[in-house]
Amino acid sequence: MTSTNKSIKEWKVKTMRQKKLAAAILAAVTAITPLSMSAHSLAPTIVFAEETGNAAKYPDWVPTDFESALKFRNTYGTTHIQDGLLCLVFNEERECERKGKTKDEPHYRISASDGAMEKLKDDTYGTENSSSDYEVVVFKPLEAGNFEISLIDNWVKSSTLEPELGYVHYLTHHTFSVDKNKNITETDRFSWMPDCITEYQDYVKKNGEVSVKDDLIIFCLDSAAGTPYTWQQMSTGFGDHADLYEYYDCSKETEIPLDGGTIHLMKVFKATNDGYVTIGLEYRDLIGESDKPAEKTLIANCVILDNAKKVLFSGDVNGDKAFNIADVVSLQNWLLGKQDVELANWETADFSKDGKLNVFDMCLMKRALFANRVTGYVEPDVRTVYGEPLRVIEDGLKLYLGPDESYPFVASLPKSTRLREYGYQNDNHRWIFTEYNGQFGWIRIIQDDDMTYTVYYELVADKPVIYLYPEQETDVHVELELTEADLSTTYPKYNNGWDVTAFPDGTLLNKADGTHHKYLFWDAVNCRTRFDFTKGFCVAGGDTEAFLREKLTCMGLTEQEMNEFIVYWLPRMEHNKYNLISFQGNAYTNSAKLNITPSPDGLLRIFMAYIPLEESVDIEPQQLDTFERNGFTVVEWGGCEVR
Predict the structure, then answer these.
(1) What dihedral do alpha carbons 193, 197, 202, 206 form, nearest 10°?
(2) 168 phi and psi angles, rounded to 5 deg
(3) Which residues contact 167 (CB under 8 A, 6 or more apart)?
(4) Among residues 422, 383, 382, which one has the least CA distance to residue 399?
């Protein structure tokens, strides 16, 4: 085909498409009472991507072509309010196409009441490659009042959902209010409920995959496109207390439909009667063996109150919108009569349903919490009694049932989530065993490059100081090699090592700047060392000074070194009820190696790790070696608080 014939064919296709769509929309909007508007045409202009050169000037966020309309949909969904304007962007395939219908038929209308609005813009954008066209409508308020914009499906006459037919219901109804200053506020549920990929991801990070709000129970469901896996209703049922209300897609919209990827659906249930309700969904393979365990399970155990106007999670007595061990502790302290303990939602703990709280509710709450946990996780080779604290730094970090991504995942962890390491495998340093909201499992802490971490350990190697005692004035080079922490502060400044002149009395001359020092100082953050607490000492806070004097003298510190150690650590320790103390050996020295030239004749490294405790614990006493000084001696002390 010649280029001329090809251009003629494209022009004919484009012209026919414009005429059909314009006729359809014109028929729809002229069938209703028009808004109060200025002299604008009721029929939207159909604009293709290459025809937008003379578009009117609007704020940058208002779409003026297909690409910006697509970006709007993935960022804001259908509606966005800014700069005193209301903009709506309809996806004419996603929201209007139905069983046996085409997008050239009229499917929706825009109506308003109790408030005058001026329509500034009504254009439709498309491309030759796109499966959808986007209609962009912009309104400006003229006076205070209320108004609504409805997406009407002429085939579906009610909001009844028929999921067994395999289609998703997208009928939308938006309501707005305009105050006397002409500020617009969206008053429908989409003011907080997501209807696009960006809002969906933000919602899951903030609220989790199962949440409640007002009279709704919301499930956020991710599934792999192009696979036989899907979400199915469990046999738990929900009786007369809730109905399926909405089921819609928040997946990313693209110009050309993607083959594969992740589908993001929201399934919403609405409370109908007061009482207790359990709703469960399973992610499973429809083609595989029917008795095979589901890949993932989401369960909502809820209490419906106030004539079905309020939904709360069963057991969420502290009001943090989750049911976990913190709620059990709150109820226990409340039952014990401890001061300053208040239950935000006492009804959620009434598991015996008798209108009062007692020890029987406590037992039922513990049983319910255990039942909500997914079992079948891989047990770690090594369990750590006192887990090291860490913080998630990667959004959406997944919790798996085993130390490999081939295992089912049971939770998605938001950024900044705080966890503890409770175990690990001897031959796998990239995964750790942990617990999140009562669910045990595994997270990947480091990528395959062994450099990129998904978590940040909150432990700090605090104030290790290095003393040098040569027998005569000596030039000394000291290097520190950290394998499980990041060097933070040094004094004097560490520049690929310290180069000093050391004197027999311990004074040091830093060659880099000529300053004098008593010792070399360093500390480290993101400390990933697994400290050993299998042996040690449990010491009352008030006995800490005497304990440290005895043990540090035994290990070989001089009085001056011991005093400097105690002055630094005693204020942090003596006010705790108890301190579990263990002086570290290879766990520390293997992760913080010292390379000293010339080599010392004797090296004493004391590193104390301790845990503040409220109650005393039994621990096997630690046997400590005594150090004797001979020749060129190097002494180091430091410590770490594990909370």
Answers:
(1) 60
(2) -105, 140
(3) 98, 99
(4) 422
Report the pLDDT value the prediction gives residue 208, as an integer from 0 to 100.
Answer: 84
Q: What is the pTM of this model?
A: 0.51
What average pLDDT does range 278-294 have in this prediction? 78
Count of Cβ atoms closer than 10 Å to residue 164 Cβ: 6
- 54's CB contacts (< 8 A; 6+ apart) are none
Q: What percent of the chain has pLDDT over 90?
A: 41
Asked if 584 and 624 count as a contact pair (C-beta separation under 8 A), the reply is no
Is 636 in contact with 467 (CB distance < 8 Å)?
yes
Q: How far, CA to CA in Å, does 42 sit from each of 22, 118, 150, 459, 575?
A: 11, 12, 16, 65, 76
Angle at 198 between CA 88 and CA 280, to 5 degrees: 110
Range among 91-100, 455-464, 526-535, 562-571 rated most confident: 562-571
Of 1 and 121, more confident: 121
Which helix (H) or strand (E) segment is 202 a member of?
helix 197-207
Question: Cα–Cα distance between 66 and 53 in angstroms, integer?
Answer: 13
pLDDT band for position 363 (cuts 50, 70, 90): confident
Burial of 234 from C-beta contacts in 10 A (0-12 / 13-18 / 19+)? middle
First and final C-alpha spacing in the chain: 75
Q: Which two tokens stand for residue 160?
A: 């009844």
| Closest by CA position to 436, among listed 402, 463, 398 | 398
Beta bridge partner(s), residue 467:
635
**Residue 47 pairs with which residues in a beta bridge?**
125
Q: Which among 521, 431, 406, 540 has a CA at the least distance from the CA of 468?
A: 521
**Most confidently predicted of 149-158, 261-270, 450-459, 578-587:** 578-587
pLDDT score at 105: 45
Nearest-angstrom CA–CA distance, 59 and 622: 70
pLDDT digit string, tens, across residues 216-231:
999 999 988 888 888 8
Q: Are residues 446 and 452 in contact, defined by beta-carbon separation less than 8 angstroms?
A: yes
- Does an H or E element contain 531, and which? none
List the one residue out of 166, 92, 98 whose CA is nearest residue 131: 92
Query: Cα separation of 80 and 103, whole Å?
Result: 24
Residue 392, pLDDT above cutoff 70: yes
Q: Give bridge partners of residue 220 from the DSSP assignment.
A: 266
- The domains located in the chain, with CATH, are 3-191 (no CATH), 197-372 (2.60.40.2020), 382-457 (2.30.30.40), 462-641 (no CATH)
Contact criterion met (CB below 8 Å) for 62 and 85: yes
Place of tokens 């290990």: 555
Kindly state the tokens that stand for 441.
Answer: 């499992």
355-360: Cβ within 8 A, 24+ apart: 357/331, 359/335
pLDDT at 109: 56
